[in-house]
Write a structure and sequence with these properties.
Elements (H helix, E strand, L loop, with lengths): L10 H11 L15 H12 L4 H4 L3 E7 L3 H13 L5 E5 L3 H10 L3 E5 L2 E2 L4 E2 L1 H10 L5 E4 L9 H13 L3 E6 L9 H4 L1 H8 L4 E6 L1 H4 L6 E7 L3 H18 L6 H10 L2 H32 L6 H5 L4 E3 L4 H11 L8 E3 L8 H14 L5
Parallel strand pairs: 2-3, 2-6, 6-7, 7-8
Antiparallel strand pairs: 1-9, 4-5, 8-9, 10-11
Helix pairs in contact: 1-12, 2-12, 4-11, 6-7, 13-16, 15-16
Length: 366
């Protein structure tokens, strides 16, 4: 959100919207079932880099999906039919409601996990490693952005060795590439580890947030296979499933994104707008931390600025979150996960004072 409380929209999006509206060549024909080819190709290059081995070897493809959870809906339907080793899905707690319900509704057993250590107030890579080591063989593991975990090389090696030994299928979630660090490549660098180790995986690549086109929900279900033949087999099955789910995806959002990504000048302008947005988010976090310090709120609040991305844990316990919801009408999940882009000059004092009251008025500390 902007300081005025309105959805953030990249400046280049306005330019492209005007161009599309005035383009006489557009006939608004139905999209192909698999979606817009130029959009999918541009999205894959954005995710992996155009010279990545999976692109060079032609063993990565994608399906143009609808909305933020369309890729999960399509991927889950495929895995329900073709992944018979285990019907258990592990999903990070912050994504359990939107995506866990997708798997649950079609018959998977969903288990919740988190990187967040509520006692140490930090992302702990050992939590992830322990969950993977205790998970049953053949299960599906939904993994979000793990940049905050700061895994060492040996921890990455241990994680992937365990997943490969247990034949755990990774399903990655990239909800806002570029908004964690401001660097598009850095935000998805961890995918290269799995590519280099020969993993097959799915990835939900949601693009609406990073362009500010929330009313044009669009994304890609990315498929990485061992070779081109297997990739084509998977895409063929996904096409059949897509026909039952939405048949033809909407084109406007994909057309906007493809137009920007395929134009070097617009692409550069869009990347700069992301960097500015990330700087603004970090500034908001700094302000929240400083206001809590000035209020004398018990506890250390360094964890707020230590975390990357627009969404971060406040480090409150369930009783304190309940106080915010019931007494102050600040509606956040029980785990204290909050979107810092929704904090602005108009509400920051109310929010920080409410957090201070919650900490002081409830039993126990953070």
């Amino acid at each position: 959100m902007t300081n005025e409380g309105q959805p953030w929209v990249s400046s280049v999006v306005h330019k492209i919207r005007l161009q599309i509206a005035q383009d006489p060549s557009l006939n608004y024909e139905y999209m192909p079932v698999m979606g817009m080819t130029s959009f999918i190709q541009a999205s894959l290059k954005l995710l992996f880099g155009k010279h990545n081995q999976v692109i060079v070897e032609n063993r990565v493809g994608g399906v143009h999906t609808v909305g933020d959870n369309g890729a999960f809906q399509l991927g889950a339907q495929f895995l329900k039919i073709w992944h018979q080793d285990s019907q258990i899905v592990y999903i990070i707690s912050s994504k359990k409601e939107p995506y866990g319900l997708v798997f649950q509704d079609i018959g998977f057993k969903v288990s919740e996990y988190s990187f967040w250590d509520s006692k140490k107030l930090c992302m702990d890579p050992n939590v992830l490693l322990n969950v993977v080591e205790q998970a049953p063989p053949g299960c599906i593991f939904v993994i979000g952005t793990v940049g905050d975990c700061k895994l060492t090389q040996s921890q990455w090696t241990r994680l992937m060795a365990t997943m490969k030994k247990k034949q755990i299928f990774p399903f990655f979630d990239i909800p806002y590439q570029g908004l964690s660090t401001g660097d598009l490549e850095e935000d998805t660098r961890f995918l290269q580890y799995f590519v280099s180790q020969g993993f097959e995986f799915f990835c939900s690549q949601s693009l609406s947030k990073t362009f500010g086109i929330y009313d044009e929900g669009v994304g890609v279900l990315v498929v990485v296979a061992l070779n081109n033949q297997l990739l084509l087999c998977v895409l063929s099955q996904l096409m059949t499933l897509t026909q039952a789910l939405w048949l033809n995806p909407p084109g406007t959002g994909a057309r906007i994104i493809a137009s920007i990504l395929c134009n070097p000048a617009l692409h550069g302008e869009w990347k700069n707008s992301l960097k500015v947005l990330v700087e603004d988010v970090m500034l908001v976090k700094e302000k929240v931390k400083e206001k809590l310090r000035l209020l004398g709120t018990p506890g250390s609040w360094d964890h707020i600025t230590d975390q990357k991305g627009p969404n971060s844990y406040l480090g409150l316990n369930s009783e304190q979150v309940e106080y915010l919801v019931k007494e102050k009408h600040i509606y956040i999940p029980k785990n204290g996960w909050i979107n810092f882009t929704c904090i602005n000059a108009c509400n920051i004092d109310y929010i920080t004072q409410s957090i201070n009251e919650a900490v002081l008025s409830t039993k126990g500390s953070q």
